[in-house]
Amino acid sequence: MSQANEVKQLKEDKFFKEILSWSMSIVFMSYWATCRTERKFISVLLAFWMWKRLLLLAKMELPGVALWIFVCLCASVVCYPNGKVREACASMVPCHGSSPQLSPEHTITVNGTEFKPGDNIEVHLSGPDFEGFFIQARDAERLDNPAVGSFVLADRRHSQLLTCGRTKNSAVSHTSKAKKKDVKVYWIAPENAPKHVQFLATVVKKYRIFWVKIPGPIVSQPDVLSPTPPLHATSEAMSTSHPVSYISKPFSASGCGIMKFCIRNPTNCNPGSASCFFLSFQQEESSVFIEMSGPSEGYLAFAFSQDQWMGGDDAYLCVNEDHRIHVSTAHLKERSHPLLDSENALEDVSWRLADGLLQCSFRRRIHLPAYKGRFNLDTSYYIFLADGEASEGGLIYKHRRQPLVTNGLYNVTGLPQDIGGSRAPRLIKAHGALMFVAWITTVSIGVIVARFFKPVWSHSFLLGKELWFQVHRMLMLTTVMLTSVSFVLPFVYRGGWSQQAGFHPYLGCAVMALTIFQPLMAGFRPSRHAPRRQLFNWFHWSTGTTARILAVVTMFLGMDLPALDLPDPWDTYAMIGFVAWHVGTDVLLEIHSYCLVRKVEVIEDDRVQILQSLTSAEAEGRLFKQIVLTIYVCGNLVFLVAFLIAINQV
């Protein structure tokens, strides 16, 4: 009887172990995907369910694992009402799952306009009641750069110091959700301070009502010229130097590819539709007439570039300022905000703002030798097309998604063409596609086969080995190969490490390391009855499970990065659907196997007979398992094809 109980106990342990692994996966997924209220609610429910499972797992002698899971659960239901928002150091955007407000209600004031290294400047943030805030000082000419200088607190009850990047005490935030009307801090100028420093603040009125990077005063070192405004400009700089007229109707795509060069996204869309981005160039003797439209109430912009990276580009912006469109030329310097030109080389400017569409048109000469930074239009360039939000005063915000970029170099004064573009580089698309194939298809099917099809295919052999083992090994080696190739592609595209991708590259490196370690460990697998085989089984299971959990989390984070940015919220729901599909199939097969074991007739003191009965019972469910596997594979392919189509359409 003890031997029979041992066999049953082994099956129960496997059952609970599988439940444990995928419960962990869902909890991590719900935390890392986004820090939204609904995610916290899901995490609480999962924490309750997991706690019940941990009680059942107490007899499995896994106190360390249980403690680790409990810590993870506690972490997954906490956001940041205490102001510890270091994750927002670079973007200054709260992880609240909604868009920022456009018209600030709060102001930043300082007690001086000049500073020398070591000076103290009083910074005062005030306005209607607010719960949270985040203050930094940055280089006024490079606002995307890290914070500069350090702060000293005036009131430790409502404010606290944070370290952003390598600069200690370089930011200030709230200590609680208690309402406040003003905050005062002191900024200490560093020795290597830039010539001009601007104070920025993010203010949270309520969880979903907040303002990001509210611009404050600019302070400068003595005897330094005023900075070129990097984020916004005065109306004088924005205004055109020629009369402006109003466009009476939407643009037309007639003549695209015949008389004018057109870029449309989606391909062949109608410029009058609410989802069409349109840019056209028509040569008229020594000038080019340009039309641009798209679904934006903030701004539209396009740029000519000599490569597929922002920086050193000739840009043109149409910005909605108080329901009037101002057209300006600008120069893009690296990945910073556009530097607007004080003089404008554009003629015959017209605009229209109606039905959610922003339209503007203007004429520009092919050659403009008198204007520095303006490219000649009879040369081939990559063309960027971007959109974003703007405040009522013309303050423009960084575009939230990747700009549309042509797939090659084009001469807009050459042969007329009608082309599209892509918001995701081809190497990044290939990276995402290969990872989806590996971690949605090959690894998932390989795990199911190894876990449930040993008794089903125990008497089937392929190349001298059991069929289930050969299928499992082939799928896992395919996963290793696909992951390895995919892992290299982003580094080839970026030319190194990406500082803009958050946790995604770090988790990707962890997944890659585990993916390589798993087959290396399998190469030293002990024989079936060796004393260390049980230890190997646990290491093999834990490494594979950790890799799959991290892969799901990494894919969740990668889908919303600007370089790929699959449609939201479709991508989140589709990935949750895949995880639920896999977990449901896994649990179904576990329950089926568990029920078969319960039916085994125990023959006391005859271990061989017991094992034979167990094998026979497992074999009885062969047809059921094969049907489930077929349905599961088809479902996986449906999810895979859906993701690949989404990647292709970006």
TrEMBL record:
Statement: the UniProt record of this protein carries the keyword Transport: yes
Domain Reelin residue range list: 70-237
Domain Cytochrome b561: 393-592
TM annotation in the entry: 433-453, 474-493, 505-524, 536-558, 570-589, 627-647
Primary location: membrane
Pfam family of the protein (one): Reeler
GO BP annotation list: intracellular iron ion homeostasis
PANTHER family for this protein: CYTOCHROME B561/FERRIC REDUCTASE TRANSMEMBRANE (PTHR45828), FERRIC-CHELATE REDUCTASE 1 (PTHR45828:SF3)
Domain DOMON positions: 273-388
InterPro entries: Cyt_b561/ferric_Rdtase_TM, DOMON_domain, Ferric-chelate_Red/DefProt, Reeler_dom, Reeler_sf
Cofactor: heme b
Compartments, record wording: Membrane
Membrane topology: Multi-pass membrane protein
Domain of life: Eukaryota
GO molecular function: oxidoreductase activity, acting on metal ions
GO cellular component labels: membrane
Organism: Chloebia gouldiae (Gouldian finch)
Family (UniProt): Belongs to the FRRS1 family.
Protein name: FRRS1 reductase
Keywords for the protein's UniProt record, in alphabetical order: Electron transport, Glycoprotein, Iron, Membrane, Transmembrane, Transmembrane helix, Transport
